[in-house]
Specification:
There is one protein chain. The chain is of the alpha/beta class and about 280 residues long. It has two domains: about 5-200, Alpha-Beta Complex (Spore Coat Polysaccharide Biosynthesis Protein SpsA, Chain A); about 210-275, no CATH class. Helices cover about 40% and strands about 20% of the residues. It has eight helices and nine strands. Strands 1, 2, 3, 4, 5, 6, 7, 8 and 9 form a nine-stranded mixed sheet that branches. Strand 5 (about 110-120) and strand 6 form a beta hairpin. The relative contact order is 0.13.
Length: about 280
Amino acid sequence: MKFSLIMATYGRSKEIENFLISIKNQTYKNFELILIDQNEDDKAYRVIKEFLNDFKIIYFKVNFKGLSKARNYGINYISGDIIAFPDDDCEYPNNLLENVKNFFENNNFEILSGMAIDRSTNKETLNRWLKFSSIINSINILRTITASCLFIKNKNKSDIYFDENFGVGSNFPSSEEMDLIFRLLKKGYKGYFERKIFIYHPYKEDSKERAYYYGIGMGAFFRKHLKNDLKLIFPFVENLIIRPIGGMILNVLRKEKFLKNYYGLKGRWKGFLNYDN
């Protein structure tokens, strides 16, 4: 079983080195890294070239921007049985690929999703994760998916592509992984969220700006798919009404938290209203 790891990078170099060290140290060695460099300078390549003799790296320097566009570009060159999309600032635990391989060999699923843990604190980077492992479905999809710890069987390569309207660098700058997994579930793929599977990813404090821009993608995701699966009404009501409005009410005397919820609400509804099917 071979892994194809597709990484798009922009604006980072030290973080890339940390990731490359982490995959060099994997206990399971049958993988390739397809790296799409969107930087205008060669800082990233100067790091990457030090690892060219350690494992298979397929490197592309491109002149376009956009996370989903870069990942789609990389998908064209995969040769593995399992596809993954690590972020350029994440790291893999040494036994991650071995654990993922064992999962797929012993379970009848085409999708495996795990969590992101902050290495310095050993805490989950998001508070939205399900508190138990579960089959992935329309109701829990927002609580079980993160692109950097997502593994998909290469069952039919034409099924696996990102909508380039979603993701960093696009009009709707998040939720590209939810969109992908929702479409795969509709095609009959079966997915599982396993809390024992995780990657390391630094925790980023939410700002009102971050809440707003990430909210735009979430709102657009619901606008795109709500008509195709009415079960999405449950996470729609939770994430576009209850959670942000409830957060504003609970934090009415805490300015920063109030504003994060307000801008998150504003972004989600902007995405929902502006997405054109």
